[in-house]
Structures are given as C-alpha cells and as structure tokens.
Design goal:
The structure is a homodimer.
Chain A: E1 9-14, E2 26-31, E3 37-42, H1 50-59, E4 66-70, H2 79-97, E5 104-108, H3 118-131, H4 137-143, E6 152-157, E7 163-169, E8 182-187, H5 193-206, E9 222-227, H6 237-257, E10 265-273, H7 276-287, H8 290-297, H9 303-310, E11 323-326, E12 329-333, E13 336-337, E14 350-356, E15 362-369, H10 373-381
Parallel strand pairs in A: 4-5, 8-9, 10-14
Antiparallel strand pairs in A: 1-2, 2-4, 3-9, 6-7, 7-8, 10-15, 11-12, 11-14, 12-13
Chain lengths: 384, 384
C-alpha cells in the first residue's frame, strides 16, 4: 500500500546510523521501468537544501530511475561542501546501479545546518540498494520519518488498470510551498514527463499547498512523481490527475493528523469569496493566527479572533456581512454574535470552520492544526 | 510619570463592574487646555471595533478634550448596536463636561464580540469624570489593563520646558498595524494638530509598528496624542518628534517585556539590507516564525530556522552570503554553520539576533518574544 504498490518499483529502508536513535534512516525507491518519466515540485523557500538544488536539476530532463532519501539530517545551509555530499550520494547510488547520476534524485530531512555523516550514509545507500524489492515500500516509508509518529503511505487503484502509490513524511513546518515534507509518488501508468509535471503541480496546489500546520516553510520540501509504465495502461490526463490528487489529498490528511503536538484537525472552508485567491488568502490568515489556534486548543469557539484574522487580509468583503460557523453552529452572523458559544461542541479532534464572505461564488479549504502545549514543548526541545 | 505629567491634564481610573474581577476598568484622560490639538493612529485591521470607527471620525477635526477608555470588553464585532453604545458613551461624557461629543474619543479593550454592559459603563464614566485630577494618571493606566501584569507609563521631559507623558496597555496580539494596545500620549507643548499627526505617525512607524509579539493584529489598536499647550513652549517638529518617539519606544519596550507568557525579549536587527523595507520584511518573517520562537523558548540558538524564515521573503539577498549572530556569537557565516552553537548564552531574557544580508546599507530592528508554554496556556484559556 505504498510506493511499491504500482508495478515496476522496488524500495527499501535501512538503518545507517544517521539517527542517534539507531532507527531506519536511509531509503531508496527504484523505478525498474520500462519507462522512467518523472516530475517534481520543490519548496518555494529561497534558502534551499543541497538535495533540492540537485534534484531540481535532475528533474529538468524528466527522467528518474532512483530516489535516495535520508532522515537524520536536512543537508540545508551546508554550503558547497553540502552540495558535494549530495552529488557524491547520487554518484554512489548510480555507480552501484550502473546508471548515470543525473537519473538519481536525492531527498534529505532533519536538522538544518549540519553536514551529513557520509561515512555512515554511503554504506547505508549500498545496503538499501541491495535490499530493494517490490515489498519494500513500507520500510522506505518508515526510514524517512523524523518527528512523525507513524509512516504515511497511500495507494489509489484506477478501474482502468493503473495504480498510484505514495509515501510521505512531515510533521512540523507544514506550510504552503510546501510543507516540511518529502513525498514520493509512483505510478505504473504510461505517461510522459510533461503530463506528470502538470498533474503533480495541479494536485499539490489543492492538497499540500492548502495544508498550513504551523505557517513555517521548509528548505527541503520535495514531491516526486515517478512513472514506470509497467501497467501498459495509458490514462487520459484527467483520469491520472484524479488518482494523483486523491493520493496527495490522502497523504495531506495523514500529515495533518500527525502534526507535531496537535490535538485538532481544523478545516477552514471559505465560501462565497470573490475569487479563489481571496478564499485562500482568508483561509491562510485564519490558519496562521496563533490566537485562533490556541483558542481551538482550549476548546474555545472564539470567533472574534477569526474575524480579527480575516480583517488583516485584502480579500473582498464587508466586515458586517461575514458569517462564521464552527462545527455547524452559526456563531457569528453578519459580523456580530450569533448562536451562543456554549452550543459549539469542540470535544472531538475534527473542527470545521466555515467562513461565508458573501462576496462572490468561489471557495477554498485550508487545513491546519491547533497550537498546543505539546507543539511548543516538542519544538523547543527538538534540536537540543 | 504618566498622562498627567504634562501640565493641563487630569485623569482617573475607577472600577465600574465591567471586569468579573472587580478591578478598575474605566478611565478618562481630560485635556483642560488652553489648546486641544490632537492626532491619532488606528489599527490597520479591516475589522474595526466601534470605538475605532468613532474615534477616527473625532480625530478628523484635530481636537480632543476627553478620552474615555474601558477594559473588560472590546466592543468589536458588535454591529450597529455596538456603535450606538460607543456613541452613547461619548455623549454621556460630553454632557457631563458641557462639551460636544465630537470632542470625546473612546477606546475599548477586552473580548471581541460581546456588547458592553452600558448600565455599568455609563455610571463608571460619571464617576471617573468626577474623580479626574492632575494626579490620576497612574489610576487611569491601571484601569486599561487586560492581561497586562503591570501598568505601563512614561514621561519624557525636554530641556526646553515641555513634557510628553503616556500610558499603554497591551500584552497579546502585538503586531504591526499596531499591537492590541491602547496608548494615550499627552504633551503640554504648543503644537498644531497637523504637526501632531505627522509626529505620532513617524513615531509609531519605528516603535509600535516594529513590535511583533505574536503576529496577530487587533481590531481596537489606538494611539492618541493630545496637546494642551499649557507649558507655553512651542518646540520645533524635530524636538517634539524626538520626545514623542522616545516615549513610544519606552512604552513599546514595556509592552514587549510584559507580552503574554513570554520568557525572552528578542531584538532582530537586520543590517546591510538593500532597503529599509527589505530589512523590515526579513525581521518580521523571522519574528513570526513559530519554530524560531519555540527554539528561543528552549534556549536553542537554532539558526537554521532563522535562515528558513529569511528564505520565505522577497528581500534582496544571496542565501550563501547571509551571516547570523545570536547574542554576539557568529553562529552562521556565509549561509552555513559558523561558531559552535554551544557557545551561545541564552540563559537571560534578552536575545539579540543580528542578520547581515550583505545586500546594501539599510537596517531595521523588529522586536518580538518567544513562544512559550505559558503563551499557549494563557491564550487557550482567555475567554473561557
């Protein structure tokens, strides 16, 4: 039920000694073909980790035969030496596989600013390559975890006979453009790189890009989509897009559910906006308000903080026309108090906020989490 | 040492029953003249509390004789009825003083979305007006506190013979445009309203607007500057500006030091930026990163999170040219690891971060706080 669910892929995860815990920390996902088309989406952060710089170049020619991933170190802000480490990793895997390094994408995740321990990493890559098999997807998904409490995998099978599989890691720094996350998606559909590129971009735009757990944008975010063509099925763009978007949406929900220290999964639906951009802007402003997020942690349906966050945006609306409902209760009507706040049930993990701007017909949903004591605890102790 | 330090002002603070605690919650600051010039700066939030809408209109004619302030309720998101409450408050004070309501500014602070209890408020205003005297500034400063742990006041005396006094409240939602704060500044200088306006705007721009405690923008922020002319001294614009900016800077530092749940006062100096706007943008991005803020709460000099936040901006810089020092230690040099992180002493409350963009000659300092367990605790329990 992961990257090795589609035909034509092998994977593995091993413990190479990068993590102090001794847990698995190096993974590979290998495409055995017959086709090697690939596409990728990378962080919008201008401070980009070495593996992002490398893999972006690899993806330019639209072919990937192997992805090497490590947890236990982000290899970000490591200068030219860090880039050489990534290059050496790709060369090492390529040599072992008898392919060119330009067909090897690299992903890293972990603490920013420290060099990777190459004497541990390279033997780990060798070991993972040796172990890679069609049942190795679960082990790969486990090896890319950092503060994740559980691996995240997905499989979507289309009736026409192709499959999309995937794995993700990410638990903090979840924000548009993208989350602190690594995602590898695989499919056995027959599809060219340019179609893959448009499909994966469209899928990210409405899934990972609308997940905004803590407002922070990472240096390492990478989403890769590899196609082996091994099913022999060549779906049309919409059919493939639906399957890939479905897989991304599923993984995004898993990321949200495992966000660091979170006690709530909050969906902020902004409806009747003048434009989709307006809806996204309003949703993000609310999702990023620490006062809104702490209120939900305290089971407090504090709609005043929601209106205060909406007011910071440039979206089209009249303040006295805004309605807000929380878990179905119309707690704010026409920009003022509506139903009694005591009637809102916030005891569960799911929180549905609907903001009606009464300014048009567009909508978007942004997903976020609450800001909890555990989030602060975890993130104040992470690197020490 | 407060709003009544300059000649020509009286003030008072009383308990009217708005606060459940029974503490003081209604204040007045009265200008006895001979002049009544005034200026104000208000929140940039598009969702504006009724008293902001009212006071903005009052300030249009550049004259204020009385300011009525209450804690225990923000009177924001209260619809037309809430605006009528503000109007009635101004009329009530004006009638008691024998002046026009158009000379009475009103400020409110507290929970958003609930109507003010007018049967308590109006007698409180009467009582405060009756008690107002030239020694009442301290009581007024106490009556406007919400989650503040101490009143905030300031006095700046210029050698030429005029004085600037002030009081502030604000402990959360501190963000540009402005903080969740009410500030009343007074001076006995002889100065026209248009000069006051330019002086108070210039002062806010480099003080309150650069304090970004939790990234949230309030619906009620108000800074008023009232001039009585009672000293007979007519300073030039620069001399007055220096005194007012000094008073604002002092109050801003008091707001930062009392920010909800904070354990650190963090100054982020961005130097060698291509423009002041770039410096401000970078400083704010770092100040708003929850991962940076939680790291400082944990005494962790996590410069990687700082670079990651810088990378989200559109400021001019090369990622591999950025230097970051924390409390004097050059922990990041040329975008990569510099001095050992264990050499940074974060045991005190003051944290000085200097970010050198090597992109020009401009600079700005943004002040913020850490994100602590106490912040989450306080803000998850505030309204319930």
């Amino acid at each position: 039920m992961t990257t090795t669910s589609p035909k034509g892929f092998r994977a593995a995860g091993v413990a190479a000694g990068l993590k102090a815990s001794g847990g698995p920390d190096v993974a590979v996902v290998l495409n055995d073909g017959p086709r090697f088309d690939a596409a990728g989406v990378f962080t919008g952060n201008r401070v980009q980790a070495a593996p992002v710089v490398w893999s972006r170049e690899v993806l330019r020619h639209g072919q990937v035969r192997a992805v090497v991933l490590n947890s236990g170190g982000a290899n970000a802000c490591t200068g030219p030496a860090g880039f050489q480490d990534t290059h050496a990793t790709a060369e090492h895997a390529a040599a072992a596989m008898g392919i060119g390094a330009a067909d090897v994408a690299v992903c890293s995740t972990g603490l920013i600013g420290e060099r990777l321990p190459m004497p541990q990493l390279l033997p780990g890559v060798t070991s993972a390559l040796n172990k890679a098999d069609p049942g190795g997807g679960a082990a790969a998904a486990e090896a890319i975890m950092t503060t994740d409490t559980r691996p995240k995998t997905v499989t979507v099978t289309d009736a026409s006979g192709f499959t999309v599989g995937g794995m993700a890691k990410g638990a903090g720094m979840l924000a548009p453009g993208l989350a602190t996350m690594l995602v590898v998606l695989t499919t056995d559909a027959v599809v060219d790189a340019s179609t893959l590129d448009s499909v994966v971009r469209a899928a990210c735009r409405v899934t990972f890009d609308r997940l905004d757990s803590d407002g922070c944008m990472s240096t390492n975010d990478t989403v890769l989509l590899l196609a082996s063509g091994a099913s022999g099925v060549a779906p049309d763009r919409d059919t493939l897009g639906e399957a890939v978007t479905g897989a991304c949406e599923d993984l995004a929900r898993q990321l949200q559910a495992d966000a660091e220290g979170s006690t709530k999964d909050i969906a902020i639906a902004v409806v009747n906006a003048a434009s989709e951009d307006d809806a996204v802007e309003v949703g993000r402003a609310v999702a990023r308000s620490n006062l809104v997020k702490t209120a939900f942690f305290g089971n407090d349906p504090n709609w005043g903080r929601i209106l205060s966050a909406i007011g910071t945006t440039s979206a089209a609306f009249e303040p006295d026309a805004i309605d807000v409902s929380i878990n179905g209760v119309p707690i704010c009507v026409g920009g003022a108090a509506g139903a009694d706040r005591s009637t809102v049930d916030l005891s569960g993990r799911a929180v549905d906020v609907t903001i009606d701007l009464h300014a048009g017909g567009e909508r978007a949903t942004i997903r976020t989490n609450d800001l909890s004591l555990a989030y602060v605890h975890e993130n104040s102790a992470y690197s020490t």
